[in-house]
From TrEMBL:
This is DNA mismatch repair protein MutS. GO terms for cellular component: cytosol. This protein is involved in the repair of mismatches in DNA. It is possible that it carries out the mismatch recognition step. This protein has a weak ATPase activity. Belongs to the DNA mismatch repair MutS family. InterPro entries: DNA_mismatch_repair_MutS, DNA_mismatch_repair_MutS-lik_N, DNA_mismatch_repair_MutS/MSH, DNA_mismatch_repair_MutS_C, DNA_mismatch_repair_MutS_clamp, DNA_mismatch_repair_MutS_core, DNA_mismatch_repair_MutS_N, DNA_mismatch_repair_MutS_sf. One of its GO terms (biological process) is mismatch repair. ATP binds at G621, P622, N623, M624, A625, G626, K627, S628. One of its GO terms (molecular function) is ATP binding. The lineage of its organism: Bacteria, Pseudomonadati, Pseudomonadota, Alphaproteobacteria, Rhodobacterales. Keywords: ATP-binding, DNA damage, DNA repair, DNA-binding, Nucleotide-binding.
Length: 877
């Protein structure tokens, strides 16, 4: 056995070998040591090899999926080695013969199909990067749904597309690790090099033609050599990992990079589109707006958010579908009720295609088709918009398959085919008979006993059973002569005589005995045969069922976005080919949701107007006032509009955005030796080098990571470049108030500020954006709010006043002021001053007797006190 193990392991040296032994997968040698540590299970030993103990650990077969998931998440690949024959067959070759075993599958991050190993609401992409003569292509597939895509692009665009897809695994040509390691690591994907021969474009074309059983790929599109290279490598890797059992893939679909809004990795991270900065899904835009009720609809929403369209026709069609669902709210709710009962057709189909499915996947297809017909009936009376009309057409046409599955399957099948019990009674006569024998054997024998008693005229005749004779007919000795004489002796054959009984058998009784004893196993065999037959008939309809699954996802997404818009008072955006970004009452969807969850009051809505007389807003105001939120919310509104969603605003006019860039927030990248400022500059450089005239750029605090004049100079030059060279729309937030003079020199820049109010030395954030420039940053006040010791805050005020005085006096006055400032004296923090009301208010309150006030008098008093406070504020100004 160990010789067999070592031979199989040698062929899969880069993976942990799950070696099947009965009800366990066993691991040996170094595999056992690594797996025991990763899985936190006991490490034991089994025999010796070359004089050394053999390390061993194992996991039960029935719970192996959970262990596989843990290993995959920790970066391991697993080769699953199964027994390829029954142990009884091996024994026929000799008592020491080893059961035949072989690897049936390589489990890798990008090739998972099991329901328990996958996230239902997101794709699990396997990607491949192809390169031919300096040209690149990216192919990707989700074998759990059959999705198969390819895109031609230059090398610089590969990292942004990987960030968009967030694949689980990326295949590259052996030797190209250095080129792609950084880009792949940013997505968290596993990097898998394979032989360069797999990327040969000529061989790839043959592999693809064989896979789709066509003579040429022309009907799928005109693929470039790099595209064929990437597609072929992906198929080659699937053949390798699935051991020739290829998944059901749809024909490859060519994607045009120019057809979608381009969003780089930094922007996706800064805007928290599908994952929050903390790393999880919670707190992201996707998690906030996801009201889909099917797994397919959730995956479609993620695709739309990750890759908003640049096609006006596609955007309008999606918005029309949402509008219909909003207008027909009652029907939309009925649709959502039906969709909640709809299983994940795509993944059920995939498991069946890879022979990893079970009876519940058959039932999932049946239930999905039932719900599809119900949904089609709900939509039938309406004049549907184009997108919903096309979806409704794809919901029907599978009546014959549905009838077959409805007749064949029980309502709630078991998980595994080997358990049996999933074929409905009445579907197969032979199966019904076997079940009757299995479940009602005693009744069948009792019936035969009655027949034999009638035939012989012996009322006391019995049919009995023991372990020696099996079933037999027994009569008393007094009836022996009758049974042994013609014509009964022709039917009843003598078996045994005892002191008082005589026993006989018959051919039908012997046959029935055999059938009863084998009925259970035979019933399972029949059900397995019927399972295979039903599976093949489902797979014959793969294309049509895939269309139905997509249609259900489209309807789910349209009704989910309508539910979102109705619940949160979102508006339909006007999307056109202009340069406008004109938003009235815009809100940040994630921040607003967080405020509502905390009961922290309403979100302050704000307007934004770009693309008319001004393409760039220069936004000033204090920290904590909401500048970053304002920048992000306008970017998200543009993104949502082009994804085909209503938006959080009173009204929104969005001219198509070709690229979305965001440089908001500060973080370092110590792993690559980059400081916070270096990261900021790298991201800013990417924006200035790539943004075109239709881009939307949001920049926050450019230059803050270095010396004041260095930072100001960089911010100034960046703003000029956006205005003069890129010519794009931009929101530019800064604390460098010197930049507020630029609108006088650059005609398409306009100043805007976030309003605050100062009261008794305290700063009150109003979170309102208005045109104009801020007079100062209020940094000291914000520091006080943050809880800095009072002595530090007071010292900061002194220094600030001195520096501002030096700045006003000009020349070397600032340096002189710094030299003249006394050193900071550490003193215990003074207790905070006791807030007191103005004297007039105190005097008036001293005259009041609360117990004598009527409700009306109390209200009048409140107004009177407010007037006194306002008079004090006006006098102070």
């Amino acid at each position: 056995m160990m010789a067999q193990y070592l031979e199989i392991k040698e062929a899969h040296s880069d993976a942990l070998l799950f070696y099947r032994m009965g009800d366990f997968y066993e691991l040996f040698f170094d595999d056992a040591v690594a797996a025991a540590e990763a899985l936190d299970i006991a490490l034991t030993k089994r025999g010796k090899h070359l004089g050394e103990d053999i390390a061993m650990c194992g996991v039960p077969v029935h719970s192996a999926e959970g262990y596989l998931l843990t290993l995959i998440r920790k970066g391991f690949r697993v080769a699953v080695c199964e027994q390829l024959e029954d142990p009884s067959e091996a024994k026929k070759r000799g008592s020491k013969s080893v059961v035949k075993r072989g690897v049936v599958r390589l489990v890798t991050p990008g090739t998972l199909t099991e329901e328990s190993l996958l996230e239902a609401r997101r794709h699990n992409y396997l990607a491949a990067i192809g390169q031919v003569r300096g040209e690149h292509a990216l192919a990707w597939a989700d074998i759990s749904t059959g999705a198969f895509h390819v895109m031609a692009l230059n090398g610089a665009h590969v990292p942004p597309e990987l960030a968009h897809l967030r694949p689980s695994e990326v295949i590259i040509a052996d030797g190209a690790q250095e080129d792609w390691a950084e880009a792949v690591s940013e997505t968290g994907a596993a990097l898998t090099p394979i032989g360069r021969a797999a990327f040969d474009s000529a061989g790839a074309e043959k592999r693809l033609c064989a896979l789709f059983e066509v003579g040429t790929l022309d009907s799928f599109g005109a693929f470039t050599r790099p595209e064929l290279s990437a597609l072929g490598a992906l198929v080659e890797y699937l053949e390798l990992t699935q051991k020739g059992k290829l998944p059901l893939l749809r024909p490859p679909q060519r994607e045009d990079r120019a057809g979608a809004m381009q969003i780089d990795a930094a922007t996706r991270r800064n805007l928290e589109l599908t994952h929050a900065l903390s790393g999880g899904r919670a707190g992201s835009l996707l998690a906030t707006i996801d009201r889909t009720v099917t797994a397919g609809g959730a995956r479609l929403l993620e695709r739309r958010i990750s890759s908003p369209s640049r096609s006006l026709a596609a955007i309008q069609a999606r918005l029309d579908a949402v509008s219909f669902a909003l207008e027909q709210s009652r029907v939309a709710q009925e649709l959502r009720d039906s969709l909640r009962k709809t299983p994940d057709l795509d993944r059920a189909l995939s498991r069946l295609g890879l022979d990893r499915g079970g009876p519940r996947d058959l039932a999932a297809i049946r239930n999905g088709l039932q719900q599809a017909e119900a949904i089609a009936a709900l939509l039938d009376p309406f004049d549907l918009p184009a997108q919903l009309s096309a979806a409704a057409d794809d919901l029907t046409g599978q009546a014959e398959l549905l009838d077959l599955l409805d007749q064949a399957l029980v309502a709630e099948p078991p998980l595994l085919a080997r358990d049996g019990g999933f074929i409905a009674a009445g579907y197969d006569e032979e199966l019904d008979e076997m079940r009757r024998l299995r479940d009602e054997g005693r009744g069948v024998i009792a019936g035969m006993q009655a027949d034999y008693a009638k035939q012989t005229g012996i009322a006391s005749l019995k049919v009995k059973h023991n372990n020696v004779l099996g079933y037999f007919v027994e009569v008393t000795a007094t009836h022996a002569d009758k049974m042994l004489s013609p014509p009964l002796n022709e039917t009843f054959k003598h078996r045994q005589t005892t002191a008082s009984q005589v026993r006989f058998t018959t051919v039908p009784l012997s046959e029935m005995e055999t059938r009863i004893l084998n009925a259970g196993g035979r019933a399972i065999e029949i059900e397995k045969r019927l399972y295979d037959s039903l599976k093949e008939q489902i797979l014959d309809h793969f294309a049509e069922l895939s269309q139905t699954a997509r249609a259900l996802s489209e309807i789910d997404l349209a009704t989910a976005l309508a539910n979102l818009a109705a619940g949160l008072d979102w508006c339909r955006p006007d999307v056109d080919d202009s340069r406008a970004l004109d938003i009235t009452g815009g809100r940040h969807p994630v921040v607003e949701a967080a405020l509502q969850a905390q009961g922290a009051g309403p979100f302050i809505a704000n307007d934004c107007s770009l693309g008319g007389s001004s393409d760039i807003w220069l936004l000033t105001g204090p920290n904590m006032a909401g500048k970053s939120t304002f920048l992000r919310q306008n970017a998200l509104i543009a993104l949502l509009a082009q994804a085909g969603s209503y938006v959080p605003a009173q009204s929104a006019h969005v001219g198509l955005v070709s690229q979305l860039f965001s440089r908001v927030g500060a973080s370092d990248d110590l792993a690559r030796g980059r400081s916070t400022f270096m990261v900021e500059m790298v991201e800013t450089a990417a924006i200035l080098n790539q943004a075109d005239a239709r881009a939307l750029v949001i920049l926050d605090e450019i230059g803050r990571g270095t010396a004041t004049y260095d930072g100001l100079s960089i911010a100034w030059a960046t703003l000029e470049h956006l205005h003069e060279v890129n010519g794009c729309r931009a929101l530019f937030a800064t604390h460098y108030h010197e930049l507020t003079r630029l609108p006088d020199k650059l005609g398409r820049i306009e100043n805007a500020t976030v309003s605050v109010k100062e009261h008794d030395g305290e700063v009150i954030f109003l979170h309102e954006v208005r045109r104009g420039a801020a007079d100062r940053s209020y940094g000291v006040q914000v520091a006080k709010l943050a809880g800095l010791p009072a002595s530090v805050v007071e010292r900061a005020r002194v220094v600030l006043d001195a520096l501002e005085k030096g700045e006003r006096e000009g020349g070397g006055a600032r340096a002189a002021v710094i030299d003249d400032l006394p050193l900071f004296a550490v003193q215990p923090a003074a207790p905070p001053p006791r807030a007191s009301a103005p004297p007039a208010v105190e005097a008036r309150l001293a005259e009041v007797l609360p117990d004598t006030l009527s409700p009306r008098a109390a209200l009048d008093l409140v107004y009177e006190l407010c007037d006194l406070l306002n008079q004090r504020d006006e006098a102070a100004e």
